[in-house]
């Protein structure tokens, strides 16, 4: 049976349908106004989730791009610095460090060695100043220690120095700091002291005769034996001879018996006067004056010429400063996966030829010299070469010693090796810079692609949206017209009673 | 009967009357076309035919009808469509209210198309904020050590925590508004029930007076229809005998079996029974305080140490108290606190009998034995075995679980302020009429025949009360028992046989509804207020929580406002814990060994001569090495060969095989901290480094023993601020706390998450790294490993476990989601969007279905102009015809009377 469509039923249906038409038109209108396909999760949960994911990736790519640009700029600055350094240590061009070295080895113009020495030392300073440059507020070549200056010159320290304030009389290794052996009966000795600088606490012993001559003593003994055989006595003057006696008596004459000798504080045979001198001069002799001390190049506080220094090894091999540049950064069991990040730590010492020393053999004036302490670091080479030149005779330019001369030749060879290594490493940096440039392009493209992807999901197709809206509006207008006529005609209007 | 001469006039008159009445009804229908709930009416007519046999009947005469009679006015209504409409309307009410609630949640949490101009539109707000933190951390990796970049991270975190606070506040406001909405809906339902009851009463009166009360029925139908939107109802009509021979219609409205649990009986509670109506109310309970880790008066239990405990696992099992214990005195052997199983007092808890669910009838001064069983098992049966009985715990005497009207804690439940039950449990009250009289049902018991040779006492009682009606009210239930006796015959001996007639008037009682007994807008609001999804207490899901209502199997997938509040809390909590956890730890060297400062003889940390920096060396514990056979190694002099065990961060301390394989000395040293595993290592590292110094007396003079030897003591090394120097070097602090006035990290939620006080004052900052170079005690100034690790937290997929939140600690310990912070946030949006989408589709479907049914109903019951126009024409023509009939009869009679047989 066909349902009876009543006026009230028609009106109810109409209201609902008109409402739906209006809602559809409103949705179409919102799309045009917002230019978005959806404006809530509810409208399209899957697309909304996907868009947030894409937008998140886009934000990450953008921030990685920003970081990449920052690191790239830092590398650019590093590159420029090393370019300058490379100029200074070039072994081909004139007016470089190597040029000065070659000039200094040339005997006919030896008188200029002091000046060349000064030039080389200045060049070494110049390299270090460049390498201590900053990018922004960070030191470029400090590795991960970006807030602290990487290279410093420090006074050369005497490795045998023992701080008197910290010298431990109970420590046998500190023997060099004490003049006397301790009196075993003293309280200090009871407490474990082995040495002392206080004569009052020292162990007493027979005063040694500094002029003692064992041969003379044998002669005296022969004279005494002869005298005894002859029934005569030995002349007193024989005993008053300075050479007589291993010990000295209180009257200043010698004696062969310790018991008759004057008792004086017992000296420490290991005492080393130099152990109290903190520094070394440029020629390697100890000194207490800092102003007299030679200087050593230090990287982050550690002398760069130290061998097997665990700190330097760590800086060069293990210290990293990672940054997420969109290489798929991830951690595994709490540890950063190194291949997924970029290490932006630039260890300045690496780019100057490295650390420690090496062995070099040279033949100078027919004599072969082997030096086991040739610095690997090109700046140390320049510095030491400069110091050798400064020690040359100011007038004649003669080498201070044959060793100085031989060492200068060895350093000249070492300079070539170190400078070559430094240039290779400069090329490595160049390659890394190139990687950063390419990575920046990749990230830019990635961000663009992501942007396109989420916009494709989110943004309306204007033509389709307008078409949808026009259709919805047409439907709504039509529904309104239907409403206008739904009650207009009924049998009631045709009644003519 | 043959019609009389003037009978035809009556015939015409009845026709005119019928046509006029028909016109009137048609007019009424047209007039009420826009009246809500109006049911079109129809005139009921019958043809008048007078039956019987005429005394002087003419055999040739023909019997004719004598006109039309209007027998009544009836409504055109299809009860089946009413049932279908109301059932469907409950679905519409439920979906509509649910969708409305979800839309309000979405207006707070849905960030699609929202965003700030700084990043461009549409990146979201909280979601973009999380990315902002990640980005700021990224910037800090390159600009490590510069305070302004730390501040950028702080600013980004600040933005996020404020957003959390904002969303949590808005959700709380929505929750409170929804509570008010539910209360208003309950009031509305009660108004509808009252209205229906009053209309029932009016209709009943009309019925008694043979008035069909059509308009009142229409009004009632409107109210019932409206009620069906709030609650799914079952409406039945029946006839009620009001006196012998007279019945009136009675309407009964019940809950319509909404609970999917087939054993549920409360889901058919009666709401209306004729002139009796119930009211619905939200159960009121004493306002309880939340368990507060910082306030022991909220802790219910006592631990074995006599101190308050929060959870049963920390509580001491309750023991049977000695009834003679003097609480004013301290417990002692002479004042024992407990009883042993044989009833002997004891003060030793280990010997005392456990106080489980006690048999109230047991005599505890006598031994627990058969005949005097102290315990009740799970089924309530007596038992001597305490293990079959529910365990109970020592109660905290200072426990104050309630809040009174002034908001102060109280232990007295009667003083507590009454508030809505947190689950918004509802009760259908007893049925009452307009005057407040309780509804009852009279249940007739099977009559009992009493014979003289049967039960003598009962027989005598029958004799004593013969002819009387004995009424007794049960004091517990209020039910009335009515007994009367009648003589119903005689036995073989001629003795009378009596019959006992018994009736019970069962009073209407309140029905406490189960969790799913309702369906419709009320239930939708309840679910919005209570459904926690995965945060639901597991004891409720598995039915072991006896205090809770049983809940349906879908409870874990139903998500209302609390679900989104808890999800937001969990996200905030996880974010805070992850960041705080990453910002605290012990420094380690490049090999992963935890390091400590090396103290010099001067009591100061030793300094590297080259670098001038403080030295850090691995923390190690000496141990005697073992040879291949596992025997302790000794050197040629018989001295132990010792090794140094370094504590390495990568060691899996918590794995039993690792822990058990530790050298004996190392294990002993770590266990001396009172802990095991990673916790023991942390405790060990936090111990102070000590050294021996000679003790001094009060005057500061060095002390010596009687032999003159110095008396030494262990003294911790301290830094310049007087703080002890520990074995390890702890670094970092809390960045995110539960309030910005402190660094407390307990119970961090979206509502309280804040930048910690220390971070806001720059007393702590983001730890750049814990890794130090060899011999170093501090990481390199630009090392950013830990910052990168923090950044990675925003990439790391984590498990979100509902029981990790303190407030839902009894929820499932299974992960509800695995993803990054952003993914968790988007997952919330996705769940909300899907719920909205599904609900919207269901609503559309239900609404269309309801509209279809309503249209069908309208096709039967509503007014149509065409119909009424037809009726108008029909009745008008009838009227005209009847008038014509009367004129014709008049003409005919005029001929008969005035012109017949008359000649002029």
Would you kindly provide a brief summary of this structure?
The complex is a heterodimer of chains A (497) and B (904). Chain A has 497 residues and is mainly alpha-helical.
> How is the biggest beta sheet of chain A arranged?
3 strands, antiparallel
Choose one word for the global shape of chain B. Answer: elongated
The named CATH superfamily of the largest domain in chain A? f41 fragment of flagellin, N-terminal domain
Helix content of chain A: 40-55%
Measured by residues with Cβ under 8 Å of the partner chain's Cβ, the largest interface is: A-B, 79 and 78 residues
Tell me about the largest β-sheet of chain B: 5 strands, antiparallel
Multimerization state: heterodimer
Number of distinct beta strands of chain A: 19
Number of helices of chain A: 13
* Count of domains of chain A: 3
Explain what you see.
The complex is a heterodimer of chains A (497) and B (904). Chain A is mainly alpha-helical and 497 residues long. Chain A has three domains: 7-35 and 460-494; 67-158 and 280-444, Up-down Bundle (f41 fragment of flagellin, N-terminal domain), CATH 1.20.1330; 172-274, no CATH class. Chain A is built from 13 helices and 19 strands. Chain A has helices at 7-34, 45-88, 97-104, 113-131, 187-190, 214-230, 236-240, 310-318, 348-351, 378-391, 402-458, 462-486, 491-494, and strands at residues 134-135, 138-139, 151-155, 180-181, 195-196, 204-206, 247-248, 254-255, 263-265, 279-280, 286-287, 295-299, 302-303, 322-323, 331-332, 335-336, 342-343, 357-364, 367-375. In chain A, strand 12 (295-299) and strand 13 form a beta hairpin. With 904 residues, chain B is of the alpha+beta class. Among the domains of chain B are: 7-76 and 864-899; 82-264, no CATH class; 440-507; 521-578 and 800-839, no CATH class. Chain B is built from 16 helices and 36 strands. In chain B, strands 19, 20, 21, 22 and 23 form a five-stranded antiparallel beta sheet that branches. Chain B starts with 6 loop residues before the first helix and ends in a 5-residue tail after the last helix.
């Amino acid at each position: 049976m066909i349902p009876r469509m009543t006026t009230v039923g028609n009106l109810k249906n109409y209201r609902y349908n008109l409402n739906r038409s209006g809602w559809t038109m409103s949705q179409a209108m919102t799309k045009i106004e917002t230019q978005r396909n959806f404006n809530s999760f509810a409208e399209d949960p899957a697309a909304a989730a996907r868009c947030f994911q894409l937008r998140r990736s886009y934000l990450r790519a953008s921030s990685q791009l920003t970081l990449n640009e920052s690191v790239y700029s830092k590398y650019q600055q590093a590159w420029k610095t090393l370019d300058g350094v490379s100029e200074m240590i070039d072994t081909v061009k004139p007016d470089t460090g190597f040029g000065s070295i070659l000039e200094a080895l040339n005997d006919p113009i030896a008188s200029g060695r002091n000046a060349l020495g000064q030039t080389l030392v200045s060049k070494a300073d110049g390299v270090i100043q460049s390498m201590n440059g900053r990018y922004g507020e960070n030191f470029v070549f400090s590795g991960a220690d970006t807030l602290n200056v990487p290279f410093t010159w420090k006074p050369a320290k005497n490795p045998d120095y023992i701080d008197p304030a910290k010298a431990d009389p109970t420590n046998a290794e500190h023997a060099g700091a004490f003049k006397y052996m301790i009196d075993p009966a003293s309280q200090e000795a009871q407490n474990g002291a082995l040495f002392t600088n206080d004569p009052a606490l020292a162990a007493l012993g027979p005063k040694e005769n500094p002029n003692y001559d064992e041969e003379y003593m044998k002669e005296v003994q022969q004279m005494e034996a002869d005298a005894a055989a002859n029934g005569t006595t030995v002349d007193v003057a024989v005993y008053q001879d300075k050479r007589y006696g291993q010990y000295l008596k209180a009257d200043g004459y010698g004696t062969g018996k310790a018991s008759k000798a004057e008792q004086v504080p017992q000296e420490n045979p290991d005492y080393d006067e130099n152990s109290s001198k903190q520094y070394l001069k440029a020629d390697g002799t100890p000194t207490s004056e800092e102003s007299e001390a030679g200087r050593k190049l230090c990287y982050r506080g550690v002398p760069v010429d130290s061998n097997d220094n665990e700190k330097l090894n760590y800086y060069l091999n293990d210290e990293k400063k990672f940054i997420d540049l969109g290489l798929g950064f991830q951690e595994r069991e709490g540890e950063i996966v190194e291949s997924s990040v970029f290490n932006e730590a630039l260890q300045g010492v690496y780019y100057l030829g490295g650390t420690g020393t090496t062995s070099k053999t040279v033949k100078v004036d027919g004599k072969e010299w082997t030096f086991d302490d040739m610095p690997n670091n090109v700046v140390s080479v320049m510095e030491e070469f400069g110091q050798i030149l400064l020690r040359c005779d100011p007038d004649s330019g003669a080498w201070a010693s044959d060793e100085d001369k031989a060492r200068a030749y060895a350093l000249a060879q070492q300079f070539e090796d170190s400078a070559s290594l430094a240039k290779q490493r400069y090329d490595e940096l160049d390659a890394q810079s190139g990687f950063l440039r390419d990575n920046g392009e990749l990230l830019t493209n990635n961000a663009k692609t992501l942007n396109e992807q989420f916009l494709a999901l989110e943004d309306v197709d204007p033509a389709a949206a307008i078409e949808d809206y026009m259709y919805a509006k047409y439907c709504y207008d039509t529904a309104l017209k239907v409403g206008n006529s739904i009650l207009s005609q009924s049998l009631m209007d045709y009644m003519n009673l | 009967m043959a019609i009389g001469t003037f009978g035809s006039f009556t015939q015409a008159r009845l026709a005119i009357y019928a046509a006029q009445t028909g016109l009137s009804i048609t007019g009424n229908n047209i007039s009420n076309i826009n009246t809500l709930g109006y049911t079109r009416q129809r005139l009921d007519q019958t043809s008048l035919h007078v039956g019987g046999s005429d005394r002087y009947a003419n055999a040739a005469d023909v019997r004719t009808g004598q006109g039309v009679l209007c027998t009544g006015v009836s409504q055109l209504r299809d009860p089946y469509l009413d049932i279908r409409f109301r059932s469907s309307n409950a679905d519409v009410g439920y979906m509509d209210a649910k969708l409305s609630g979800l839309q309000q949640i979405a207006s707070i949490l849905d960030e699609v198309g929202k965003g700030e101009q700084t990043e461009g539109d549409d990146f979201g707000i909280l979601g973009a904020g999380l990315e902002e933190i990640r980005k700021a951390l990224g910037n800090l990796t390159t600009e490590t050590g510069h305070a302004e970049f730390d501040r950028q991270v702080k600013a980004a975190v600040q933005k996020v925590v404020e957003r959390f606070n904002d969303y949590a506040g808005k959700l709380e406001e929505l929750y409170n508004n929804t509570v008010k909405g539910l209360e208003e809906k309950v009031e509305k339902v009660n108004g509808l029930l009252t209205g229906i009851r009053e209309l029932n009463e009016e209709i009943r009166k009309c019925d008694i007076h043979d008035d069909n009360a059509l308009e009142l029925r229409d009004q009632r139908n409107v109210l019932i229809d409206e009620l069906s939107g709030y609650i799914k109802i079952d409406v039945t009509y029946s006839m009620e005998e009001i006196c012998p021979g007279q019945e009136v219609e009675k309407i009964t409205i019940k809950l319509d079996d909404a609970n999917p649990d087939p054993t549920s009986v409360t889901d058919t509670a009666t709401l209306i029974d004729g002139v009796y109506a119930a009211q619905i109310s939200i159960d009121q309970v004493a306002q309880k305080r939340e368990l507060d880790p910082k306030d022991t008066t909220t802790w219910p239990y006592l631990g074995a140490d006599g101190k308050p405990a929060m959870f049963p696992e920390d509580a001491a099992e309750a023991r049977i108290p000695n009834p003679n214990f003097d609480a004013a005195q301290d417990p002692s052997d002479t004042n024992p606190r407990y009883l042993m199983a044989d009833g002997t007092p004891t003060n030793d808890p280990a010997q005392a009998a456990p106080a489980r669910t006690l048999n109230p009838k047991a005599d505890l001064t006598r031994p627990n034995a058969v005949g005097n069983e102290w315990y009740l098992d799970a089924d309530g049966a007596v038992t001597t075995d305490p293990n079959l009985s529910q365990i109970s715990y020592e109660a905290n005497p200072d426990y104050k679980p309630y809040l009174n009207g002034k908001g102060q804690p109280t232990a007295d439940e009667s003083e507590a302020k009454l508030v809505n039950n947190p689950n918004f449990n509802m009760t259908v009250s007893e049925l009452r009429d307009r005057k407040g009289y309780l509804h009852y049902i009279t249940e007739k018991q099977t009559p009992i025949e009493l014979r003289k040779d049967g039960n003598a006492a009962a027989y005598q009682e029958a004799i004593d009360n013969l002819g009387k009606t004995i009424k007794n009210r049960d004091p517990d239930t209020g039910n009335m028992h009515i007994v009367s006796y009648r003589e119903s015959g005689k036995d073989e001996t001629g003795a009378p046989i009596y019959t006992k007639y018994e009736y019970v008037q069962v009073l209407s009682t309140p029905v406490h509804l189960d969790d799913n007994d309702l369906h419709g807008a009320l239930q939708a609001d309840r679910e919005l207020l209570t459904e926690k999804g995965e945060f639901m207490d597991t004891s409720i899901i598995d039915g072991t929580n006896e205090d809770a209502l049983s809940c349906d199997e879908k409870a874990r997938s139903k998500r209302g406002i609390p679900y989104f509040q808890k999800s937001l809390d969990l996200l905030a909590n996880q974010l805070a814990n992850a960041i705080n956890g990453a910002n605290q730890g012990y420094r380690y060297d490049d090999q992963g060994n935890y390091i400590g400062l090396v103290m010099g003889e001067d009591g100061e940390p030793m300094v590297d001569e080259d670098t001038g920096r403080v030295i850090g060396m691995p923390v190690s514990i000496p141990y005697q090495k073992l040879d291949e056979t596992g025997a302790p190694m000794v050197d040629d002099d018989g001295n132990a060969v010792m090794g140094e065990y370094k504590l390495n961060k990568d060691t899996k301390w918590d794995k039993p095989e690792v822990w058990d394989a530790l050298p004996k000395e190392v294990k002993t040293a770590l266990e001396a901290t009172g802990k095991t595993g990673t916790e023991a290592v942390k405790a060990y590292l936090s111990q102070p480094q000590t050294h021996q110094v000679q003790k001094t007396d009060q005057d500061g003079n060095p002390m010596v023993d009687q032999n003159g030897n110095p008396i030494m003591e262990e003294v911790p090394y301290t830094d310049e601020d007087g703080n002890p120097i520990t074995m390890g070097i702890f670094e970092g602090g809390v960045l995110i706390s539960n309030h910005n006035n402190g660094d407390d990290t307990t119970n961090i939620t979206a509502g309280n998450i804040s930048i910690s006080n220390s971070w806001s004052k720059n007393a702590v900052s983001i730890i750049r790294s814990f890794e130090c170079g060899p011999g170093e005690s501090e990481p390199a100034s630009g090392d950013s490993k830990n910052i990168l690790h923090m950044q990675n937290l925003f990439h790391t997929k984590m498990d979100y476990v509902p029981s990790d939140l303190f407030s839902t600690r009894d929820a499932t310990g299974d992960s509800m989601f695995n993803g990054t912070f952003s993914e968790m946030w988007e997952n919330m949006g996705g769940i909300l969007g899907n719920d909205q989408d599904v609900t919207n589709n269901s609503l559309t479907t239900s609404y269309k279905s309801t509209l279809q049914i309503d249209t069908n109903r309208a096709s039967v019951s509503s007014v149509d102009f065409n119909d009424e126009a037809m009726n108008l024409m029909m009745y008008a023509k009838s009227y005209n015809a009847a008038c014509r009939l009367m004129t014709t009869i008049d003409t005919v009679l005029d001929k008969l009377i005035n012109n017949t047989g008359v000649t002029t």
